Amino acid sequence: MRTYKLTYFNIVGLGGPIRFLLSYGGVEFEDIRIERSNWPEAKPKTPFGQVPTLEIDGKVYYQTLPICRYLAKQFNLLGKSDLDALEIDAAANTVHDLRKMVSLYFFEQDSAEKAKKKETLVTTTLPFYLKRLDDTVKKNGGYFHGGELSYADLFFAAVQHNIKGFMKNDVFEDYPNLKQLIDNVHALPRIAAWLAKSPKTDY
Amino acid sequence: MRTYKLTYFNIVGLGGPIRFLLSYGGVEFEDIRIERSNWPEAKPKTPFGQVPTLEIDGKVYYQTLPICRYLAKQFNLLGKSDLDALEIDAAANTVHDLRKMVSLYFFEQDSAEKAKKKETLVTTTLPFYLKRLDDTVKKNGGYFHGGELSYADLFFAAVQHNIKGFMKNDVFEDYPNLKQLIDNVHALPRIAAWLAKSPKTDY
User: Fold this and answer.
1) Which overall architecture, per CATH, does domain B82-187 show?
2) Quick one: which of A72, A203, B113, B151 could link to B77 by a disulfide (CB 3.0–4.6 Å)?
3) Are B90 and A128 within 8 A, CB to CB?
């Protein structure tokens, strides 16, 4: 049996989707959570100064989306054809981009710059992305692609917690298809079981 | 026969790797280049306000890395196993991240902020990434993974032009393994033929 060891911070963030995928796949994994105070020491030991990393049978892999995609392949969450996979990847990458923009605001140190970034997010970026993402889910029968569950759905349903936390606001409130998708993913038995037992964090 | 229609700006940028992949695959494609002055009109017609997009048999696909990965699959540039593909994806995603950081500097409007971003890139980010990328290529026999050509190599050999252009400097000069990889990819017959006939641009 394969051994999986996830290393990330003690937040949902970008570790969340990997934890969802491993849970969905029904495999055991070690869920290592680095304290921020230990990060300066841990950072140079990662392949490119970043977490999450996933150790599979003793070898360290990095980069969130590639790790998610690898797990998606193992657990049949990539659609039926290569073109299905392309659309599923595109949806996951888009959610990843949106989270990145929110995190660039959240971690901005300069207060004037931070206010400017927030303004752009609230008035432009979030409405633009969320409307299009909501429409995509509506058009695809409640999922991001093809009327069936894919890793893009799990990716979104994990990362949305991080986006809401960073924005200190339920930015998905006015997007009923996205809200329903979150509820549906969270109700999957193995995801529900994971959520019940995993640490509660703000982001 | 499939028809491919790429839409991007008239620069290498993120369109470059897709043009490299289509050329490497030996398929014909339409290479549509939007002028910056036409972008405000074209932007809302794209799926998420961004290019490149790739139309395949009349359907529009989006997101650079997913498009590259799809083409890589068609042209056998994804290694042998799913774990090979994970490492190849991680390398391509890392180069994509680095380009993004360089572009955030390049497009910064505030001059003080721009100077700060450049300082961080030159003293910290670029040396950190380029050393690790160079070591990866050295360790893998001249490629990013597994001693054989993958789409990560084509991705890098295209995008490096954009990074150099934005930095107005050959930032790869002191990294012999990266330089050699660029030369090797550019010497592939179909890539060389593409480079000979494609428009020359600064980025």
Assistant:
1) Up-down Bundle (1.20)
2) B151
3) no
Are B184 and B122 contacting, i.e. CB atoms less than 8 angstroms apart? no
Of A63, A74, A90, Cβ closest to residue B66: A90
pLDDT in tens, A82-127: 999 999 999 999 999 999 999 999 999 999 999 999 999 999 999 9
**CA B31 to CA B167: how far, in whole Å?**
26
- Give B61-87 pLDDT, tens digit per residue: 999 999 999 999 999 999 999 999 999
B103 close contact with A: CB closer than 8 A: no
Q: How much is the average pLDDT of A68-82?
A: 98
| Domain spans of chain B, in order of start | 4-75+190-197, 82-187
String of DSSP letters for B7-70:
EEESSSTTHHHHHHHHHHTT---EEEEE-GGGHHHHGGGSTTS---EEEETTEEEE-HHHHHHH
**Cβ of residue B139 closer than 8 Å to a chain A Cβ:** no
**CATH number, span A4-75+190-197:** 3.40.30.10
Of B66, B93, B113, the CB nearest to A86: B66
Query: Does any CB of chain B come closer than 8 Å to the CB of residue A43?
Result: no
**ipTM entry:** 0.97
The answer to whether B180 touches B50, Cβ cutoff 8 Å, is: no
Give per-residue pLDDT as tens, B82-130. Answer: 999 999 999 999 999 999 999 999 999 999 999 999 999 999 999 999 9
